Amino acid sequence: MKNISVELKDHLAEDVTTLVTCWKVIREDGEILGFTDNVFDLIVDTVTYKAATGYTPSNIKSSENLAVDNVDLMGLLSSSEISERDLIAGVYDYAEVFIFMVNYEDLTMGILKLQRGRLGEITIHENHFSVEMRSLTQQLQQTVGEVYSTSCRADLGDARCKVELDPGQWTATTVYALGDIRKATSYDERRYVVTDVTGASTSGATEPTWGTTIGATTNDSEVTWTAYETYTFEGAYILSTGKYNVPSRPTETDYFVGGLLTFTSGDNSGISREVKTDTDGDIVVVLPFPFEAADADTFVVYAGCNKRVEDCKSFSTENGLRGNIYNMRAEPYIPGIDEISKFGGQ
Q1: Helix residue ranges per DSSP H, the chain
Q2: pLDDT tens readout for residues 214-232
Q3: For residue 117, which of 24, 1, 49 has the smallest C-alpha distance?
Q4: What is the pLDDT of residue 200?
Q5: What is the pTM of this model?
Q6: Helix (H) or strand (E) holding 315
Q7: Nearest alpha-carbon partner for 317 in 214, 248, 246
Q8: Which listed site, 188, 220, 246, 272, has its alpha carbon 20 to 30 Å from 98?
Q9: Per-domain boundaries in the chain
Q10: Exposed e or buried b per residue across 210-233, where buried means at least 16 C-beta atoms within 10 angstroms of its C-beta
Q11: Among 259, 245, 253, 258, which Cα is nearest to 278's?
Q12: Looking at residue 319, what is its pLDDT?
C-alpha cells in the first residue's frame, strides 16, 4: 500500500492532472542527481530535478509475486549532467535510484512513490544512453552469507582483513600507540610501524630523518619507528611498450596478482582494475581500462594476496610472527573431501 497525501489522492481522481515523473540518483561516491520529464526544472526536498536531460522512463510495473521488476530509463548524453565518459568509467554502476511522481503545479501535495532500486546494465548509443533499473526484489535473488573455505574470503586491505595498504601520513606532536602505521610526508615507499614508546608517546615537532633500510629504526621524540616494506607502489604507464612500469617493485613473481591498479592521472584517473598476472615485471589487468592510457600516466598498485595461511602470516607486523592470521576469514584446516570419504581405518 502506498501512502500519499489526501490532496494528491484527490488530484489523481480528477479528469485532468498535472503530474510529472522524477528520478533521483545516488551514486556510490555520494553524489546526488535529479532528473524529470517535466518541461522545466523542479526542486523537491532541496534536490534540483533537471528537465534538460531528455529523460524518458518505460512503463513501471510492480508485481506481488516477488518477481524482479525492471524499468528501462533513457536519456540524452550531456557533458554537464550524465556524460559518456562517466558512464564508461563506471561512475554510475550500482547507483541507487528513486522514481516518484509529483504535481508540478503544487509540490506541497507531496510525492507518489513508484519504484526504488539500483542501476543495472548500461548501454551507450550515438547520442543517448539506456539503462536498466532493477527493483529491490533483485536483492532477494542474491546469495547471502558465507560458506566454509580453505582460502580467505576477505580482500586484502578491506575492513575484515584490516591490513593497512595505504597508511596515513606522519604528523607532528601526535600521540601514537604501539602498532600504529604511518608513511613519510614525502612518500619513500616504506611503512613505518611504532615499535616502542616512552613518556606521553608523542611524536616530535618536526619530521625525523627516516631510516629507510628495512628493519631500521627512527627515533622521533617519544616514539620509535621501524621501517618495513610497503604494500603500495607508484608507477607510470609506458605507451611505447604498453607496460605498467613500477621502478622500485619487489622482485617476487606474481607479487601484485589479485591487487588493484589505480590510475592517478590521465583519462583513467580514479579508475581501478584488478591485476590478473604479474610475470617478469609485466603487469596484466583482468579488465581493460575504459580509456586509452597516455604515456607517463601515473598510477598506484597494491600488493596482491593468494588468500592462504602463508600469506596472512606474511602481512602486517602488529601481531609479531603471527602476522595477520587473527583476521583471516577462512577455515584452512577443515577436512577435505578425501579425508571425509575415508573409511575402515584408512
Answers
A1: 6-12, 84-89, 309-314, 337-340
A2: 899 999 999 999 998 888 8
A3: 24
A4: 94
A5: 0.67
A6: none
A7: 214
A8: 272
A9: 6-141, 181-229, 232-302
A10: bbeeeeeebebbbbbbbbbebbbb
A11: 253
A12: 46
Q: What is the C-alpha separation between 214 and 243, in angstroms, rounded?
A: 28
CA 339 to chain centre: 39
Question: For the sheet containing 19-26, what is the strand order?
Answer: 42-44, 47-50, 32-36, 19-26, 96-103, 111-124, 128-135, 70-76, 56-57
DSSP state of 68: P
Distances (CA, A) of 177 to 100, 194, 197, 254, 318: 51, 7, 7, 34, 11
- Of 232, 219, 221, 158, nearest to 190 by C-alpha is 232
Grid cell of 175 as nine digits: 600521540
Residue 197 to residues 175, 212, 222, Cα–Cα distance (Å) = 10, 20, 6
Closest of 25, 24, 20 to residue 37, by C-alpha: 20
Q: How many CB atoms lie within 10 A of CB 182?
A: 21
- 61: which residues sit within 8 A by CB, 6+ positions away? 69
How far is the C-alpha of 69 from the C-alpha of 116, rounded, in Å? 10
Position 321 scores a pLDDT of 46
* Cell numbers describing residue 142: 542474491
Kindly state the cell numbers that stand for 326. 587473527
Regions of the chain with pLDDT less than 50 = 66, 68, 79, 319-321
What CATH number does domain 6-141 carry, 1.10.3730, 2.30.110, 1.25.10, 3.30.590?
2.30.110
Phi, psi of 297, rounded to the nearest 5 degrees: -60, 130
What local confidence, expressed as pLDDT, does residue 346 receive? Answer: 63
Rounded to the nearest 10 degrees, how much is the dihedral formed by the CA atoms of 171, 174, 180, 181? 10
